[in-house]
Amino acid sequence: MQLFVNVPVKDLDRSKQFFTDLGFTLYGMSDDMASVVINGETHVMLLAEPTFATYVTKDVSDAGKSTEAILVLGMESPAQVDELVDKALSAGATPAGVAQPNPGRYQRGFADLDGHHWEALCLMQG
């Protein structure tokens, strides 16, 4: 089974560049959507807001004003957590959430260019 998480974006080209800058591969691009490949089983679909709106019956939320979900990426080391979040911040993201440097867990977050909340998480064996 695969997982495709769909998020609305205001400027698709800008969002594609952002995720490319973070080192992700894009797949299945069209004029109104692109897939960020997390791994072979998980993709985050970037849909232009007007296209996203055609798939829903409720209003499209503004991720810059409210949080509907937190997208968490599992990393293998705290250094990978820092590397990803630092790349995101350099590419225009803003810090989000509260860093979690707790025993057994290291976690930092950022809001992407549209305000979607992402976290990089490393669970460590104790």
UniProtKB/TrEMBL annotation:
Pfam hit, one: Glyoxalase
Segments passing through the bilayer: none
Domain VOC, residue spans: 1-123
UniProt source species: Nonomuraea antimicrobica
Gene3D superfamilies for this protein: 2,3-Dihydroxybiphenyl 1,2-Dioxygenase, domain 1
Record-given protein name: VOC family protein
